[in-house]
Every structure is written in C-alpha cells, then in structure tokens.
Hints:
This protein is an alpha+beta fold. It has helices at residues 2-22, 24-33, 53-60, 84-89, 94-105, 151-160, 341-344, 395-407, and strands spanning 39-40, 49-50, 119-122, 126-130, 136-141, 162-164, 173-181, 189-197, 203-207, 213-215, 218-220, 224-233, 238-246, 251-257, 263-270, 273-280, 285-293, 298-305, 323-324, 333-337, 353-358, 362-368, 375-381, 388-393, 427-431, 435-439. Strand 14 (251-257) and strand 15 form a beta hairpin. 33% of the residues are buried.
Amino acid sequence: MEGVTSKKRLDSWKEIASYLARDERTALRWARERGMPVHRVPGPGRGAVFAYADEIAGWLNQQPTDVHGASRSEVRQPATRAGKPWRFVLPVSAVLLVGLIVVWAVRIPGGGQPGPVEKLKFSRTKVQALDGASQQVWEYSIPGSIKLTSEADLEYMENLARIVDLDGDGSLEVLVTSRLEAEGQTGSLSRSVLHCFTSKGELRWKYDPELTLSFAGRSFEGPWDINDVLAVSDGKGHAIWLAVAHHTWWPSFVVKLDAAGKAEVRFVNSGTLKVLNLLRTSDASYMLVGGFNNEWEGGILAVLPVDKAAGSSPQKPGSPYRCDACPSGQPIRYFVFPRSEVNRSEINAINPVEQILITQRKVEVNTGEGPSNVRAFYTFSLNPEMRFVSAAFSDASYWRLHKQLEEEGKIKHTPEQCPERDGPLGVRVWEPVSGWREVRLPGQP
C-alpha cells in the first residue's frame, strides 16, 4: 500500500511540472493544496521556489513533515547534488528530478520579478512603489517628515501621483508630490515638493518651489503648496504643469517643467489656483486654469497659451493685487464667476473653480458654493472663443441649503422668489484687446 501511495505522489510531481509549463501561479497553488513541501526563498522582492530533499522523501512516504519550512533562527540549505538528503531521493524517477529542477528555477507572481509600477503607498518617512499585485517594486526615503496627519493628506499625495514617460524613451517615470512638515513642528505644513523617479526608483530630479513673488511692493516667499499636476504630451514625451499656491496667503502661479525638471513660471494669479486641464481644438491647444481671485471676489478660469508665458491675472490699476515683475505676456481670456446668494450669506466664503471637465462637445466649469455637493455649473462651447452656453446650480442640494438659510434669517426670500432661480447671473470676461465685459444668458435680466 505504501508503494501505491508513493506512486500517486510521484505522479503529483509530474503533474505540477506540467502545470509549471503553462501557469506558474496555478502550479504553486495546486502544490500547496496537496500539502507538497514547496518553499519560496525569503527576503525582499521575488524569491525562487524550491523544496528540501528530506521533506520530499517524507512527503512521498506519508511521513509527517513541516511543509512550512524552517524557523527564522534555523538555517537550512535546499537539496543539492551532494549529501545524504539528495541520495535519499535518488531512487525517484527522472521525471521527478526534472520537475524539481523546474520548481527550483521558477519565479512566480508575488515571488518573482515585480511588474511595472502602478500605484504608490506612503508613510511618514518613505514612498513605496507597488505593481498591480501590490508587490513592492522599490521604496525611497523622503528627506524630512511627510505630512500624514489626516486622510486628506493621504488622498492629496495619492491624487497627485503621476506615472508617465517624460522623455519619450519608452521607460516610465514616477512623479510623487509630498507635503513635508517643518522640522520639529509635527502637524504643520512646511512645503510641497515634487520628486521625479525612474521606473527603478532612482531619483532623477526634484522641484522644491522656492519663489518670491511681489505685489505692489509686498513680497511673498512661501511656503508653497502644489495643488494640481498635469502631464501634457509634447509630441515626443511629456511636460509637467503645476498649479502652485501660497500656503497662507493668496498668491499663486502656474509653472511648466520639462523632462529634466527645468522650471519656467508661466502665469501668476492674485488668488489661489486649484486645477488644470488642457483644451485641444482643431487649431491649437490651451491651458485652462481654475481657482479664485481675491480682488474680484469670484471663482476664475484663465485660458493660457501652451507655447509661451501668459503674464498675470488682470487687476485694477494701482491695486495691491497687481503683480510686480511677473512673466511677460497675457492670458488669452480670464473669466470671473459671481458668488451665489448662498455663498454670499456665509462670512469669509469663497467660490473657487474646483473642477474643469472637457468632453467632445463642451467645457464645464464647476465652482464650490458651499459644502462639497453645493456647486454652480457653467458650460462653454468647445472652441477657442469659449462661448458662454449655460449656467445652473446643483439642483436639490443648492436649494435645500437655500431653504435652510432662509429659515435662519440669512436669506430673506423663498427659493421660488430667488432672483437666481434660473441660475447664476452674469459672468465677467477679460480679453487683451477689449478689456472687461459681462456676458449673460438669453432671458436673464
């Protein structure tokens, strides 16, 4: 009976060899389900699969054996061509030996060479690059402490991570934006830093915003916070555009980085900038930038050329918000969206542009008018002129908050009586030749 059992188990080794030729993952799972003594070389990365000769012998003869291998304190060597354990297995057929050689040599998912980087994991001291199976590809210790005091900090870094071929050489780069705390000041934001890594985890370059902007003689040195990262194809590789804002005050700027990390400030805004998107038309491409303007007290959308600098936001003559010594050039267009009645009822509320959506037919710009689900939606035509098409509030959520504010005495009329019942009234637009003008939808007063 013992000989029959051993023969069946020998056939199992033949079968696992057959599986290995087709599917390594299936082979390992199949072997472990049958209690076969299969191990993986310990340590980081992917380890080879092997078996100990004495365990094989015990398994073939139905003898109890520790299929989980030695403890960490015990050092054992895989079976070799020398020594008694190997001689114990020698009577086994040649097919078994071939199967064992294949098992020793194979590298399996989770234990073989990792795949390309697909996601990132952050801790207070380092960033880990993971493949699609969540296996570590590489890790890098960021100098300084990463700010991870809330779920929002983690979402910030995850949302701004980019994996893209910058120089068009067929190898992907990994862009990591980290918020770093000031030394010895846990919980306080020092600055944002963009790190560029090769696919193997080597640091290529980093961009640490160290810029001083001046407005009517008042200087702002930072710290600076990166709010959005956009990779834009340049035909060969990609350029990186950033929306960067002062952590405490209102100055912001747009900067373009080439594949080597060389930075060029393209636009300065007197108010926080939050989002970027690229508008491609049949004639040209335009950078769309959303945020807020402190002097005009409204959410803004700036339309910028992608091939040259675009100066600064248009401000009043002699204004304290007027930029000194800013880049040359001008924006192509600059829209200002009015604060809604709900937004105006709250002290210190602002309505920045928080999202820019581009479809095959339109450009939709969303401003935040209150809590996250209370928004105003502005629609523009998909062309360089960006003709104003429609405007509306976020329906039930907006009017529910309107009713609440009415009950609190902050708004003096019902939703049905509201002058903005049919949507936001008036959008201001600036153009280099004509200056400021106001546009309204047909039928609006």
